[in-house]
Design a protein that fits this description.
CATH superfamily of the largest domain: P-loop containing nucleotide triphosphate hydrolases
CATH topology of the largest domain: Rossmann fold
Radius of gyration: 23 Å
Strand order of the largest sheet: 2-3-4-1-5
CATH class of the largest domain: Alpha Beta
Number of helices: 11
Shape: elongated
Distance between the termini: 72 Å
Order of helices and strands: HHHHHEHEHHEHEHEH
Number of strands: 5
Number of domains: 2
Strand content: 5-15%
Length: about 250
């Protein structure tokens, strides 16, 4: 007589995992061997685990990663130029907590996007919120936001993000207005948020792609002096994993 009203109250309280696990306990006679406190503890643990997983999935969805990449699936072979201990340390997320930056460098196809997404997902798992952005599309969004009046709102949203990932950084030279926009973002984040930059452009070439030397100095100053660097080496991963590489015909 008590079970159905109790189930309805668990639903009202939005304890869906607790309710499902409770129903399973009711149907499994082995749980009768446990004390009330043990059974209750199991139910609470299941609800906490479900809620944590749901929050993680929301963070991952909000980040908009283009690839489902994980640290466990990274290729850390010697020829890639990555040190396993350093990658595992970065995956813990202390650099995000300390509002530091990370530069992921390397030629086209060496896996910069995959590595960036894997570290971004690790940050999500460490309970940080993350945004993945292709730099060219971000610049378009900033231009549109200025036109429709949502520019301040977009800047606030980016400033609140624990980790911003800029992919294809400086692939194309910037206009002066684009450089000013990026400096606005980096100003808001300096000492308050972490930034990951993935690029095929060597750091020594960044200055030349920003038209105003003063803006260039300011952007580089906010990005590179408090940044870890990872430089990917080896062949293009697209080439290595191409089905044509194993085609004898």
């Amino acid at each position: 007589m008590l079970t159905q009203p109790l189930l309805e109250k668990l639903t009202q309280l939005k304890l869906s995992a607790f309710r499902t696990a409770y129903e399973e306990q009711q149907q499994n006679p082995h749980y009768a061997e446990l004390s009330f406190e043990e059974r209750l503890g199991l139910l609470v643990d299941i609800e906490i685990t479900r809620r944590a997983n749901n929050r993680l999935q929301r963070r991952i969805k909000s980040a908009r990663f283009p690839l489902q990449a994980t640290i466990a699936d990274l290729d850390l072979s010697a020829g890639r130029g990555l040190q396993r201990a350093q990658i595992l340390q970065l995956a813990q997320g202390q650099w995000v907590q300390r509002h530091l930056n990370l530069l992921v460098l390397g030629a086209t196809g060496t896996g910069k996007t995959y590595l960036s997404c894997a570290l971004g997902r690790a940050a999500c798992e460490a309970e940080f919120n993350v945004r993945y952005l292709r730099t060219s599309r971000l610049l378009q969004s900033l231009e549109l936001a200025q036109a429709d009046g949502s520019y301040p709102q977009l800047l606030r949203s980016l400033a609140r993000t624990h980790l911003l990932i800029f992919d294809d950084w400086l692939r194309d030279s910037l206009s002066r207005s684009q450089a000013k926009d990026l400096l606005e973002i980096l100003d808001d984040r300096y000492g308050r948020g972490a930034t990951l930059v993935a690029t095929q452009v060597p750091v020594q070439d960044w200055h030349a792609r920003i038209p105003d030397p003063t803006l260039a100095d300011s952007i580089l100053d906010r990005l590179i002096h408090n940044a870890y660097r990872l430089e990917l080496k080896g062949d293009s991963m697209r080439k290595v994993h191409s089905p044509l590489m194993n085609n004898d015909h």
